[in-house]
Amino acid sequence: MHIPKPYNLQTKFIFGLIVAALLLGSIFSAGSYFHMRSVLEEEVHDRANLIFAHLDSVQQYVRQILRPAMYEHFPDAFLIQAMSSSYISRKVMSSVSTPKIGSIFRRVALDARNPEYEANDLERQLITFFRENEDHQLWHGYQDLGGDRHYVMARPVRFEQQCMYCHGKPEDAPADLLQRYGDRGFGKELGAIAGLDFVATSVQKSVGRLRQTILTYFAFFAFGVLLFFFASNVLFRLLVVNNLKRLTSVFQRNATDIESAQLLSQLEQGDEIDELVDGIEQMGEHLFEARRQLQNYAENLRLMVDERTDALSDEMEARRADVHLFVRLLEDMYQSRSRSELWQHALPQICRRFGAERIAYICTMASQGSYSWPETHSPLPQPEQFVEIVTGGVCVARGPAVYVPVESGTGNAEGLLCLSWKTPEEAARHDLSVLQALGRQLGIAAENLTALDSLARQMNILETIVEGITDPLMLMDTGCTSLTVNRAAKKLTAELTDGERTDGNILSLFFPAETEKCPMKDAIARGEPDLREVSLPCGRTFSLSLYPVRSSSEEADQAVVYLREITKELRMQQQMMQTEKMATVGKLTAGIAHEINNPLGVIRCYTGLLRQTVSDRQQLTDLAIIERHTQQAQRVLQDLLNFARPKAAGSGTADACLVAGSVSEVFSVQAAKKGVQLEVTCADTPLIVRLGVGALEQVISNLIINAIDAVDEEVGKLAIFVDKGSKTMIAITVADNGPGIATDDAPHLFDPFFSTKDIGAGTGLGLTICYGIVSDVGGRIEIGRSAALGGAQFTVLIPSADPSV
């Protein structure tokens, strides 16, 4: 029966949190109160000091400026409103002593001339204090004045030499002063303390605000404590109580007898920690009992160890022989070329190791696949339940014979190994687990031989595939030595050398091996593929691909060389390029023929007519100048037409910056006519690419034409950037502020005859030709949206031909 607990760990934890929160709250409130009280005292202390400083300023002004000025103008008169420092100080400081400000200022004295400023009891006590304590120049503290708590500051007033004229002997005092106050206030001694300056500041309201602030802070603190209690309670239950209950449940599950049940009932009277501690104590008692039993066992352990040592020695010798057998079997596996050789080598050694009379192996992978040793004996009969033993994976002893299943590494049954002794006792002495491990080792060896045979067949298939490739293919090392070549490579080598060479080293036909600029060495060094076009003097052009091959150490030390003849493809490409260029020139000339040709013809015609009618030499000179400039304009138009004429084909090299600048100048006329801004930005140094000038002009021309057609008139912008795209690539970027490329059109931009222009406005072959030109030299074209202009952006990446890259 479960007995309810009078208290638990969580209750103690919550109670401890409450005590800690109250203690912290009290300390926090007290600390805040005393801190804010000290701040309040500093504030009223500074206010009183400010009043004293104001008072000193007034008195100093009266004594040093106002009083001397009055004596100068009225030497025989004493005007109290302008010459008495005490009178003026009281009048000026009267604005401080108001209930609104909460401050009191009094300048009082003993036997004062004006009875209103006679010192009261508190002020007399302070004057007495200063007389008794000459070294004290200031007194401050709290006093109750008029029912309110005030912070009081007072300082003594000593009679100096200037004061003795009005407070010394009556006969020396001004007549106006005697007439006004009589003989009161005289008889003071020089340096005596007979008065004081008194300042009091009310702190009642400030203390109330201080208490209100402390209560507000305490309320927020209490609210935070409640939230903290709730979160702590939940976390403590999840992280502590529940885990402790899991630990105590271990003891509960093991309490099966009556004594343990009674002990568990006693443990449940405490909290979770008590349960855990008591449970650990009980565990300690059990461990102590177990230790005592172990000590009893240790007394007989020596005899058991000796016996076991002898047995282990025998077993160690057997295992040593087993290891020696496994090593020899491994050697036989490497020397064997087939399963038959493996069994012929392995069976005699196994039979000798285990001292068997006969041994045989029955293979399940092939019909009539059985081997035995010695061969003079008759074969061992197959056991009953042969299939169950082979597929069971466990050695079986039947009388004087032991049957060992031979399995591959994947668990497939390979066959059955049979060992026979003269008597069943001899068979029983051997460890079946060792024999079973031997069977698995033999199965793995047989499986490896099968894999090697399969690998040899795969190599034959791979060789057949390589030889079946009609294009030349070869594998070369860093020394430009041919490791593997196919028949097509040998045939091409013989064809290009008129039968002098048949080694298939096609790379040496284009690049001498001893040159430092061998592309294969460069590709292996960089670890990146190299795709280029190569040509022979006979006019044949090939696409050469070099693919570095990495070894097991992740270093490229070989390269696959692939060659494909593209002579016919280049010719067709040149024709397409020429067609597209002519279409481009047609667009240009169509736009400017009417604007230039007709006016130029009219100008030349009228120039000739005028020459026939003019006889003045100066006029004839002017007409000659007009005709010369007209001819120059016609030559510019002729240059545009010459741009469309075919240029020398081939890969070659070109300065990307120079070609981009020249092409942009050609199209600047068409851009200006449409009101399009055309800007070209190039690097300071030449950027040489692996592409001929004509092909590069064709690529940039098509991109510029498409950009001019895409932007709007008068607001269009076109930018061309030429820079290094990477270590091995030169980037030519053409960007505009047009509508950009639609998502559906992007996959088809490089398809032949695909165009987004109006019917008749384009052939649809421009980007197709550009893609083919760039791809053939190992480059690529990337499309996207320009971040600067917002329209379409085409980036042409062409391999660099600069040897320093």
Task: Describe the secondary-structure layout.
Elements: H1 9-73, H2 80-83, H3 85-93, E1 103-109, H4 121-132, E2 139-145, E3 148-158, H5 164-167, H6 175-181, E4 193-202, H7 204-254, H8 258-267, H9 272-299, H10 301-335, H11 339-354, E5 358-363, E6 370-373, H12 386-392, E7 396-398, E8 401-407, E9 413-420, H13 424-428, H14 432-468, E10 473-477, E11 482-485, H15 487-496, H16 519-526, E12 530-535, E13 541-550, E14 556-565, H17 567-613, H18 617-643, E15 654-655, H19 656-674, E16 677-682, E17 688-689, H20 693-710, E18 717-724, E19 729-736, H21 766-776, E20 780-785, E21 792-799
Parallel strand pairs: 16-18
Antiparallel strand pairs: 1-4, 2-3, 3-4, 5-6, 5-9, 7-8, 8-9, 10-11, 10-14, 12-13, 13-14, 15-17, 18-19, 19-21, 20-21
Helix pairs in contact: 1-3, 1-7, 7-9, 10-11, 10-14, 17-18, 17-20, 17-21, 19-20, 20-21
Count of β-strands? 21
Biggest sheet strand order reads 6-5-9-8-7
CATH fold-level topology of the domain at 648-805 = Heat Shock Protein 90
CATH class of the domain at 648-805: Alpha Beta
Distance between the termini: 88 Å
Instruction: Tell me, rounded to a whole number, the average pLDDT.
Output: 75
CATH superfamily of the domain at 648-805: Histidine kinase-like ATPase, C-terminal domain
Uncertain runs are 1-7, 642-650
Main beta sheet, described? 5 strands, antiparallel
Q: Could you say which overall geometry the principal axes of the C-alpha atoms support?
A: flat
